[in-house]
Design goal:
single chain, alpha/beta, Rossmann fold, seven-stranded parallel sheet, globular
Length: 249
């Protein structure tokens, strides 16, 4: 089903752990050349690249702080320079700065959260779009969040707002990309068991999963599989969609 991914050039942001790491390994397993983006976690990114290469795949790491617009602007160009093009962009990197109640949230945390989850994915999509437009199309897959559906909590309102904006950008880019065979979709993960929850102070997911109809957290592989589906020939007639992968949440 996914043989057509062999030789495709795939850039995945935030790929040193969690959903990004799993997605990188899955694409590489089908023969794609994968750019593993990281910010501060160089060792896990390099370890991932090593595993992919050991298994016969092709991968390399790229460092960039996605809060820094100048570094964001260079990331796609650096990837294209390294591998000669870009077929698929997976905007996976994300997270929230500041986890106080919204009444105490400082403007710096608000701005940095929007920069990471909305501004940098837009810039990366724009740079990829420009190349794809002149090279027979491509795929852009934006990783949103269940926070966009519910608006986040009192402590993650800024994160929910950013992800909602990313879904709007997804739909706009899909309309703009259709004439050039640039297909743009978003995936909205629910509660996924990744290290990200620890960063916002959750020591356990037990309480949160009680509101999930399937009564469990998802796995990074659940999201990675849909990324591969949308990036493959299976997704050739799909664009402008937002897919919930949330156990019914």
């Amino acid at each position: 089903m996914f043989e057509g991914l062999s030789g495709k050039k795939v850039l995945i942001t935030g790929a040193s752990s969690g959903i990004g790491e799993c997605t990188a390994e899955l694409f590489a397993g089908y023969g794609a050349t994968v750019g593993v983006h990281y910010h501060s976690h160089k060792e896990p990114a390099d370890n991932l690249v090593g595993r992919i290469r050991k298994n016969g795949g092709r991968a390399f790491s790229l460092e960039a702080d996605l809060i820094d617009v100048s570094m964001v602007n260079r990331l796609v160009a650096g990837f294209i320079s390294e591998v000669g093009g870009i077929d698929i962009l997976v905007n996976n990197a994300g997270g929230a700065y500041g986890h106080d109640n919204f009444l105490d949230l400082d403007i710096e945390s608000w701005n940095k959260t929007l920069a990471l989850n909305l501004i940098s994915p837009f810039i990366l999509a724009k740079e990829s779009f420009a190349y794809m437009k002149e090279n027979e199309g491509g795929r852009i897959i934006n990783i949103s969040s269940i926070s966009a559906k519910y608006g986040g909590s009192g402590r993650t309102m800024h994160y929910g707002a950013a992800k909602s904006g990313l879904e709007a950008v997804t739909k706009s880019l899909a309309r703009e990309g259709a004439p050039y065979n640039i297909l743009v979709n978003a995936i909205r993960p629910g509660v996924i068991d990744t290290p990200a929850h620890q960063k916002i102070g959750r020591s356990t997911l037990d309480e949160r999963v009680k509101s999930v109809p399937l009564r469990r957290a998802g796995k990074p592989l659940d999201i990675a599989r849909l990324c591969v589906f949308l990036g493959s020939e299976c997704g050739e007639f799909i664009t402008g969609q937002v897919y919930d992968v949330s156990g019914g949440d």
